[in-house]
Amino acid sequence: xxxxxxxxxxxxxxxxxxxxxxxxxxxxxxxxxxxxxxxxxxxxxxxxxxxxxxxxxxxxxxxxxxxxxxxxxxxxxxxxxxxxxxxxxxxxxxxxxxxxxxxxxxxxxxxxxxxxxxxxxxxxxxxxxxxxxxxxxxxxxxxxxxxxxxxxxxxxxxxxxxxxxxxxxxxxxxxxxxxxxxxxxxxxxxxxxxxxxxxxxxxxxxxxxxxxxxxxxxxxxxxxxxxxxxxxxxxxxxxxxxxxxxxxxxxxxxxxxxxxxxxxxxxxxxxxxxxxxxxxxxxxxxxxxxxxxxxxxxxxxxxxxxxxxxxxxxxxxxxxxxxxxxxxxxxxxxxxxxxxxxxxxxxxxxxxxxxxxxxxxxxxxxxxxxxxxxxxxxxxxxxxxxxxxxxxxxxxxxxxxxxxxxxxxxxxxxxxxxxxxxxxxxxxxxxxxxxxxxxxxxxxxxxxxxxxxxxxxxxxxxxxxxxxxxxxxxxx
Length: 476
Hints:
- The chain is an alpha/beta fold and 476 residues long.
- Helix content is 27%, strand content 29%.
- Strand 8 and strand 9 form a beta hairpin.
């Protein structure tokens, strides 16, 4: 039997905020006599909101009351009420990512959906979300190829490389459309600090409170584009490459074959004419135009993008399952857990378990989920093995502990999700190698993917079962 859910996706970024309403068709795919397992069968976007500049207070925190007013206004415009919404997701990205922001927004929007996923995404997770929203992730999976998405927004360019549907690597650069802002008279009203440094070094005639010089701006745009080309190994290295790295460059040995673009600047690459290049009060359209004539467009196969500025979450669906007590290990005092983001290792990652490199891979990927410079609790998802040996499980446990060292140092609980039926043995091995009484939970027979969030409830049935909700972010 198919049911429908009304879901909302709210994207709060450095520059802009928007909202999308979608109708999700869900169906129980389990047999009559087994635990319900709900799957999202279809999705239909029924409303796209206005796009506003993100309301920011003087202390650089999100104006949560402004966000609440915007959501209320858009619900009214869509002809719905808060009680109509059954589920949803709020994703906070870019420079607005701060703990206080997430807490304030969650409080302000409580009651606006049945069960919100409220997630703060640093530059790496933001890259993954944008790549999924642009359709690059699903394209790489269906076409068995390696593809990169450039999400070029107001302040940054987020890169995500997908290989056959797995997240291979991410990167972020301080290149975006609103690094220089102009008013209606084309007078420059803002220049970002790093751009000021480039202007100084290159002696460009670009100055605050003066009319923008198109010839000088073109030289600056050439520098931006060269760095973007360098980011995937094209062209001669720019002297400004290292300056413009936000957190880290790409570190993949795979040959990238396809490319896509999302974010506000992406519209300037293929769609916008330049009759009024500053109609958005920034240099985004001119940056897009410059990219359209770059090596990025000719060296790789261009993938048609599903969405550009709206390459964002359109909502969240969920399915529930439970886990057999005979195959799980947990410390009850850390439960319940809510809205834990999933880091799912690829099959290639797991294949290096015996080489002693798995811990290093996990350690690097844990950094994808750092928020405001701090690590957060994650759910580490693995496929596991059907009939693992004792040596395999011991080695896997040691590599996991090595890879999750950043969390252990902060005394954050470890959450391990295994698809195969081996969580009891793995949990015992983890327990033996972790500090005494360290908080962790190890469950199996649960299928998760990167981009999911998981809730784990208090034990039921005399401690034999842990109720689990896997929340799946839904993209257009």
